[in-house]
Amino acid sequence: MATITAIKQQKRNPQRVGIYLDGVYAFPLAKIVAAWLHVGQELSPEKITALRGEDLAEKVFQRALHFISYRPRSQAEVERNLRKHQVPAPQISPVIERLRAAKLLDDAEFARRWVENRAAFRPRGAYALRLELRQKGVAEASIAQALQGLNETELARQAAMRKTRVLAGLSWLEFRSKLSAFLARRGFGFEVTAQVCREAWERLQTTQSSNS
Q: Looking at CB atoms within 10 Å, which of 18, 26, 155, 171 has the fewest?
């Protein structure tokens, strides 16, 4: 058995402390892990091993929290990031469960917000959105739920608005070709693309006529 003789806060990281056993610095711990320790407490080798394991789990959890602090992430993205930092697989699953339990990781909500964000800033068709979410590792059920009720025609109109101004002055065939290709690259189907191209062309002709 070893006796805790001091618990000192680290200068460089106030969220961590140094544990001293029998007058000698032994190892660092996250404050949350060391919360129940006190000077004079005796630690067995098994308890020391357990504490260091808890500390490692807390480090992994904090790394995951830092990763999701910039923007919402899918579960697969978090797992890939932890693996990239060489976190062993057995230590990843508990962290994922902890994030899910705290409602900090929810693929269904992630997919819904992804679709909403695209609709507001970079409109995409269902095909492109589905592909993007698959690449994020989102399950098909969550993708289908997020895409439910998607108005592709309206999204295509929004996507076409800015592009139409760039294409003003072209012939109908050139206009249709370029705008169709633009919308197709954003995942809109043939029928929606054809309808929106015709509407955009007619709107452009009306605007040009009224300005002449």
A: 171
- The predicted structure's pLDDT at residue 191: 95
- Tell me how far apart the alpha carbons of residues 17 and 189 are, in angstroms, rounded to a whole number: 58
pLDDT for 108 beyond 90? yes
Residues whose CB is less than 8 angstroms from the CB of residue 75 and which lie 6 or more positions away in sequence, other chains included: 96, 100, 105, 107, 137
Q: Tell me, what DSSP letter sits at residue 202?
A: H
CATH assignment of the domain containing 70: 1.10.10.10
The residue among 115, 131, 125, 133 whose CA lies nearest residue 183 is 125
Decide: 96 and 78 in contact? Cβ < 8 Å: yes
Q: Domain total for the chain? A: 4
Instruction: Answer left, alpha or beta for residue 103, where phi above 0 means left and psi between -120 and 50 means alpha.
Output: left
Give the per-residue pLDDT at 212: 56
pLDDT at 211: 67
* Statement: the pTM of the whole predicted model exceeds 0.85: no
Instruction: Grade residue 207 by pLDDT with cuts at 50, 70 and 90.
Output: confident
Q: Which residues pair with 18 in a beta bridge?
A: 8, 28
pLDDT tens-place string over residues 167-184 = 988 999 999 999 999 999
Distance from C-alpha of 76 to C-alpha of 80, rounded to nearest angstrom: 6
8 Å CB contact between 142 and 111: yes
Helix (H, G, I), strand (E, B) or coil at 85: coil
